[in-house]
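So, can you check this one?
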Amino acid sequence: MLQYVNRFSCISAKNEDSLIIHFEQDEPVSSSDTNGGNISECTHKVASLVMDRDCAEALVDMLGKMLSGSLPPSKKFGSKNKS
């Protein structure tokens, strides 16, 4: 299942061996007590991912290549953890 996100934040562990990425979605919410009244935003956490440094670097590299057009978007690419 695909989830739409329009916000993310990143945190690195103190030893910088791992990275946490939180993906979130902002949703407009209108108050029901007023007639078409105030609209505010509510933020929902969609997913949180923890990855090691090698995986994070591979993700950065792959996203850069896909966004620059040097990798076709229709193919599946990935990185396997080499433990």
In short: The chain has one helix and three strands. Helices lie at 53-68. The radius of gyration is 18 Å.
